[in-house]
Amino acid sequence: MTPPAAGALEQDEPSFSGSGASGPRLVTAPSPGILPADLQQRINQMQASRLDSKRLPTVPALARILPGGGLQSGGSYSVRNSAALAMALLAGPSAQGAWCGVVGLPEFSVEAAREFGINLDRLILVPAPGAQWLTVTAALVDVVSVVLTRAPEHLAPTDTARLKARLRQRGAAMITLGSWQQSDSTLGVAESVWEGLGSGRGHLRARRMKITATHPSGRSRHAYLWLADLQHKLRDPAGGHLPAGDGTPGSADGGDPLFWPTLMNS
Amino acid sequence: MDSAPAGDGSPPTATRTLLLWCPDWPITAALREHSLEADAALALVAKGEVFACSPAARQDGVRRGLRVREAQARCPHLICLPYDPDLDQRSFEPVTAAVEAILPGVQVLRPGLCAVRAKGPSRYYGSEEKMASVVFTTLAAIGLTDVRIGIADGLFAAEQAARVAEETDDADAPLCIIPPGRSPWFLSTFPLDVLDQPKLAVLLRRLGIRSLGDFAALKAADVRNRFGEEGALAHRMASGIDSTAVVPRLPPPQLDTTVDFEPPLVRIDQLAFAFRMSAEAFVGRLRGAGLVCTVLRVVLSSDSGEVSERTWQHPRWFDADDVVDRVRWQLQGGRNADSGLSSGITRVHVDPVTVEDLGDHADGLWGTGPDESVHHGLARIQSMLGHGAVLTAIIAGGRLLADRRVYIPWGDAAPGSAGTLPRDRNLPWPGRLPGPVPATVFAEPVPAVVVDAAGNGVDVDGRGVLSADPAFFSAGRNTGPRWPVQSWAGPWPITERWWDPAGRVLNRFQLVDPSGSAWLFLLEDHRWWAEATYD
To answer: Model-level pTM?
Structure first.
């Protein structure tokens, strides 16, 4: 992994070519009554499913790569392969006093959640919803601001649409671990390097990640971050943001001592 | 008699009164509460002095007002218990209820002493003797035999009659009836001390008045002029024309609810359906009394004689649905809603343990706060999945990551005292994990395999020496592809409760695979487990 020296925020795939090409195809749709499946899919992709008016507080490092500049209320996001990333998304609203719910994740580590700045007093866990996943999630969406869940493998498209409508109505955001149809953005850890561990000595200290956020249209953004950037510490907003969170994520390539002194000392 | 208290010119008349006296009620109550023998030497202690003592203790010379040391010296096998006024009240309640069932309008003067207007009931039962015998039989049925009854004109005369009942009559039915109009005669021989006015008694004795009869012979107007209102009252009592009315108590509203099922119900949904009406009535009664219930006790009796009792708390207060849910959860006890019970339920008893004023819990004028809506939503999920399915978490102390999280069902108080567990976390736990905390901690450790470059299993010997460097690993039940180990650290020994045979000895490892995922592995008893992953 060779992270760029600066300006890590970039667009892997310029989206304009894709959306520009879709215009004529829409016009030549075969019959107005019945929409073919791929056309319906394209319409879903282009429809805004979130409320632009309200934005939930988000960890700055992630706000920059998310569409709309942060978690949108009414939006749904999926996180591919990292529980830590999902916790970082929860941390922003939770630190501002919002209630959060976690459904169907018995392995959710509460201690790590606390490290990320999630307020445990306002964190509701439903580890085993069983067959009533949809009902439980819908009921939680009614009362909490952010729901983190793992979607069941088979979910009828109508149920997905109803849940999405409920999210929009209640102004809550949903984060799913694993894939989710019609998510506003799919986040994932593309590359990851751990520091502090040798061969038989040391211990894990710091992690450097490349995080990608992929829009359903295919356009994606990525950022190079330290794990500590995701943690919503109280001192972050006061003493100026850590370098990585502030827009120069690539600057601290090899573990800047100024950047995270406590980790170096431990 | 021109100075009648009523002041309307008519001669004062005393109410015909039945007085029921249970001697040594505090002792009777304590004997029953602590299930002691009836002839045990028992003393109830208040403020270091004997407040009441049983007949056996009295025989050995224990008296009221004696210091505890002194009482114990006089009676070495004396049982001393603290005096509990609430216990007296509480244990007298069934007696009052039993009397109320046969005679209307009971006034409880103090625990152990109650009065009833005798006129109506005596006509109903035929005579005053028959009425008294009905009371004796009723109280014997609830296990109370040491009861005296006095019937006379006026409360004061009736009390004195009850106190002499034992000496005047046979032991079976200690009853003393003073015929109507004979109360002055009955009282005339009593000493002045029974008036319970020591200063007046001393003064009268100095004036040469020795008995109630002598006192009653004085003119009422003179007594009032000389001794004031208190003296006039004492004079009326002594004259047997005590016009103190018997004020019947209002029976307190019955707030608890009991439902019996005949035949016993064997299905939970059936029971929940049958109990719903009672739960609504229960909450309605509380509401009518201006109360809400915040702590509830549910007692379930089953066909086979089992009794399940549990106290439930509520973050706000119970409404009818919540009550039904608690009954259902208690029945389920971790099973599914459609499973049958081991034996049929014959009785459900719901008892409000803590009630609070409705005004303190009313909804605000402009709707309720956000946290209350959160609670409503979570209560709905709890009613779907069960009480223990909706959790909050706190972090406790421990070496293994799974030990460090403690789940608390929504609405329950944290285990132990509120401050204990979070403080526990800050204690030094040798062997706890350094560095960042993994984001995924498996609820149950996942079996894993770790091998060296030659494909042999990696192990740690008794001295903590690793057999070979780990080279490949896999986690999960399927022995799928083995990932190469890029970097690793360990073994970090964890010895839990080495003094205890049930203690554990583990070794912890951190492994990182080439994709940059880090894992936390445990080696216990030559077997590998994945404890957590840093994903």
So the answer is: 0.59
